[in-house]
Amino acid sequence: MNYNVNEKGYYGEFGGAFIPEMLYPNVEELRQNYLKVMAEPSFQEEFNQLLKDYVGRPSPLYFAKRLSEKYNTKIYLKREDLNHTGAHKINNTIGQILMAKRLGKTRIIAETGAGQHGVATATVCALMGLECIVYMGEVDIARQAPNVARMKMLGASVVPAKSGSRTLKDATNEAIRDWINNPVNTHYIIGSAIGPHPYPDMVTRFQSVISEEIKWQLKEHEGRENPDYVVACIGGGSNAAGTYYHFLHEKDVNIIAVEAAGHGVDSGESAATSVLGKEGVIHGCKTLLMQTKDGQITEPYSISAGLDYPGVGPMHAHLCKTGRAEFMAITDDDAMNAGLELCKLEGIIPAIESSHALAIFEQKSFKPDDIVVVSLSGRGDKDLQNYIDYFGF
Amino acid sequence: MNRLQQKLQEDKKLLSIYFTAGFPSLNDTVSIIEDLEKNGVDLIEIGLPFSDPLADGPTIQASSTQALKNGMTTEILFNQLKDIRKTVNIPLIIMGYFNPMLQYGVEAFCKQCQEIGIDGLIIPDLPVDVYHDEYKAIFDKYGLINVFLITPQTSEERIRYIDSISNGFIYMVSSASVTGSQSGFGDEQTAYFKRIADMNLKNPQIVGFGINNNETFTQATTYAKGAIIGSAFIKHASSEKLDTIGDFVNTILQ
């Protein structure tokens, strides 16, 4: 079984490039060039240098001693929360901004939900001196004021998406429309492992630095490269794609994907796409998608804005369908409690997205000598207000 | 030869109107189609509303959102159209995004279209190669013509390829834009219209996006076989009473 993308842009039956003809030249230009550009030594060198000096990589692989004691297993945390801008998102935006420059683009657009990808994009645009326009749902702008301010400080224009439900999926629609209107000078930095081919593969490759580091770091800690489990939360699935990438074809490594159950998978307010979704087409790819019987895309719900997306990346849809990954769904309540537990036991305030991944230890038992690597995809600063409201601090 | 192919052979410039089914009210579909035909429109694109119409601008998106709120579904649209061929003779095309068709079942969708008397489909997010490899045989089986888009950025090689697998008309997007987002055509568009006309394609071209009055209609049809009006008609339908459809069409054709 192959879990990587094939030459036509598919992961099994998922993926492809379901785009209007207006986008064909842009996407085709990228498809023809992305692997070539990424393979250039000068690209590799610049990318790696920035990851090291600017982002602060490698991010530590931390043995969480007290958490491990509590759950009687060996838990390692991959500390993406310590990256510049506070999450894994920057790995991808660094890669894509270098790609955009090599393709001669002068204008960058992006979509953002909670604002993390928007901030990571605005950051690299400032770094490279490129114009940056970030589309963000009107509803999200209202509830994520600090990130809106960050983007503005970094020189980006934040454009409200006023159509549809005025959240992430609508921001994505608006970014796509912008790209249709500006086909020559603009690069669209998609923030997750979604979109038309080659985006899911390109984003996955830029994020794959996460699993590349896990391998050698675990070797240092434990004398072996492969853990028994890798665990990551999934919205669109970019941190998960990067966490799994170098383990996809390692049969002895179990993969766990953690989705947001919201108020409960059957509550009508959930983002657990693997359970609630059906095969469909969204934002340019065929994947698992939450939709009505009639094929209208529905609004997901999660307390975590980063997991609040009605689809998953096509690679993850394939991992789900083939059974390569075990999918678990974690409710708001369980995630919030797991987040607070990490604060108390390890002195780390996690993003609510990452808290979903941490919550699996209450639901699933591991053997004492199992090595479980959890991607701590982001830090919790951005979620402080949510934590305050939830726990009443 | 179906109704659409016959219409394309007529010696006149064609006016095509797009409207979103279920807008402004759920049950306006049939009367809008009948009125458009009565007032001299040559061809109608019936929009199947979608929650996330990413090639469309704010006007069509808003009408789609409203249509869905009004309760429009694929099933209801097919029911509304089931007797349409008793009263309407001009070619009818359904324009919609791929996901609702995929959920209905592409073959079941095409079969319904044939039973109703739909002549063709426009599916902006179904790429040419996927259509060719996976769905062309089904479209052919039910006598449906699939219409593809080209834009000013489409390469000559790709235009030739699209022309080779088309058997109706080519939908020529007037400029790099979503629907309803520009006013007036400049030299750039005229040069593009002429460039395509000079390619002597086997399929006639109908221009869409940015046609909103007699002037743009005339500019577009100087080189092309016809022109499509969408957003401008939706705006008319949302602000005026539907009994003034004739006035709208007359201002275009004059």
Automatic annotation (TrEMBL), chain A:
Would you name any one GO CC term? cytoplasm
Q: What is its EC number?
A: 4.2.1.20
Coiled coil ranges: none
Molecular-function GO terms, alphabetical: tryptophan synthase activity
Q: Into which family does the record put it? A: Belongs to the TrpB family.
Describe its partners and assembly state. Answer: Tetramer of two alpha and two beta chains.
**What name does the UniProt record give this protein?**
Tryptophan synthase beta chain
Please name the source species.
Aestuariibaculum suncheonense
UniProtKB/TrEMBL annotation, chain B:
> Which pathway does it take part in?
Amino-acid biosynthesis; L-tryptophan biosynthesis; L-tryptophan from chorismate: step 5/5
Q: What is this protein called?
A: Tryptophan synthase alpha chain
Recorded catalytic reaction(s): these are:
(1S,2R)-1-C-(indol-3-yl)glycerol 3-phosphate + L-serine = D-glyceraldehyde 3-phosphate + L-tryptophan + H2O
Q: Which Gene Ontology cellular-component terms appear in the entry?
A: cytosol
User: Gene symbol?
Assistant: trpA
Active-site residue numbers: 45, 56
Which Pfam families does the record associate with it? Trp_syntA
Under the heading NCBIfam families, the entry gives: trpA (TIGR00262)
Enumerate the UniProt keywords alphabetically. Amino-acid biosynthesis, Aromatic amino acid biosynthesis, Lyase, Tryptophan biosynthesis
The domain of life is: Bacteria
**What EC number(s) does this enzyme carry?**
4.2.1.20
Known role: The alpha subunit is responsible for the aldol cleavage of indoleglycerol phosphate to indole and glyceraldehyde 3-phosphate.
Principal EC category: lyase
